[in-house]
Every structure is written in C-alpha cells, then in structure tokens.
Amino acid sequence: MPIHLLQIAKKLAYDAGKLALKYQQKGFSVYTKGDNPLNLVTDADRACEELIIKTIKSNFPDHSILSEESGAFEGGGEYKWIIDPIDGTSNFAHGLPLFAISIAVIHKGKPIIGVVEVPGLNETFWAQQGKGAFLNNKKIEVSKTGNIASGLFTTGFSYDRKSPRYAKNMSLFDAFYTVSHGVRRIGTAALDLCFVASGRYEGFWEYDLEPWDVAAGKIILEEAGGTVTNMDGSPFNPKLKNVLASNGILHSEMLRIIREHGGDKV
Hints:
By secondary structure, this protein is an alpha+beta fold. The protein has helices at about 5-25, 45-60, 90-95, 165-175, 190-195, 210-225, 250-260, and strands at about 30, 40, 65, 70-75, 80-85, 100-105, 110-120, 125-130, 135, 140, 150-155, 180-185, 205, 225-230, 240-245. A hairpin with a 2-residue loop joins strand 9 (about 135) and strand 10 (about 140).
C-alpha cells in the first residue's frame, strides 16, 4: 500500500482544518442547499473542498473523487477519494469547535485509509488498513464496556424533520437514554465514529447518511476493533444510508433495542 497516500491524506486534512479555522476567525457567508433551511453550506466548506480536490487532481489525475459539495469525478484509476470538507457545518457556522475534515481513500472498492481532522480540538484520527487506528500519534482501541447500562451512546438526526425516520430516531434516543449513562448528539457522524473508536462512546447509530459522512470514520473504528453494520444488522452498505457502530461487545444488544422499537424497518 503506498505510504505516501496516507501522508498526503493527513496533510490535506490538516491544511483544510487550518483553513477552516481561518474562516471561522475572519468570517464567512452561510447558504442553504436546495429549499431546506437546515442544510447549510459555507464559504469555508467550498474553500476546503477546493484545496483538497485541487491537490488530488494535480498529483493523481487518474484517481476518482466523491465529495459532498462537488459530487463525483470519475478518474478511471483504481483509487477513489471520499471527502467531506467540513462535517458538522452547522456547528462550524455557529462557532462550535466540533467539526471535522473527513478524507478516505478506497482501493478497488475497499477502504484502505481514513483521516478525520478535528482542528478545533487539535486532534487527528487516522487509520491504515491492517495497521490499527490512531489519535495523533497514540494507538486507540474501542472500549471494553460490556453492558448497555454502563455505556455512553451517540446519534444524529436528519435535516428532514417530517421524515418517519426522524420520529423513529426520537423513539430510539429515548430507548437508549433510559437504559444507559446517556445519549449525546454532537452533529458530526465522522466524529461520532471516531469517538466510538477511541472509547469515548460505546455505540452510535444514525439514519440518512451519505458515503462521505462515514467512509473515513468506518475504517478508523474497525481498525480500532469496533463493528460497523447497517441498522438491520446486515453488512454495511452505504446505499442504505444508515449506520450502526459499536465497540463490538454491545453490537447485538444495540440491535435488539433497535429492533424492539422498529428502528430496523424504516
């Protein structure tokens, strides 16, 4: 596996993170996507994406790219980059430090590299296939918590508040909250997955996610010893646009709670 791809992915995420912080300090414009006033995009999202894509194209013209704001570019080669220039745009727009730059590299359909840069916390989560997962320079592992009652969990909510999945997730939030140490909602799936990977949470679930939301975090969590599936327990398929992630020990118990509340059917 080309080690330079990991180095470049980490540098791109770091540089984009520094650029995002500059925008947060100097100011930026906020727009909405389509007709949903909750789905935000900023000048910083677009600038960070441009920085990342320009570098990839200049160095790897045959690599494909899938990015949140620009969509897909088919390069014809064996490698594909999946990018979320700022995951947690609403947090970013309100000045919260909980946002991330997410970059994954896929080779022949298999994730081989994941980097999630959290500039507001000075944290870089990263993983390489078969090499483990790291936070900055320290290897990380999922928690060893073996019961739901002692766990801390996290979820996220769709921009479509009229969706049946939105109402269902409110029910799941309540179900997990009442039997655990609590449920958090920080507004960035990439960071949620990394927090499970580092043992800060025991599990995470969410509906209506796109590939760029989970691609990097998934390999980081799996390299840390965790488990990632869809919410019906099937092998993860990004086309289903939902995810269930855990420390592995609690995965079947999380599935049971989700199924009891019909969360695997919507």
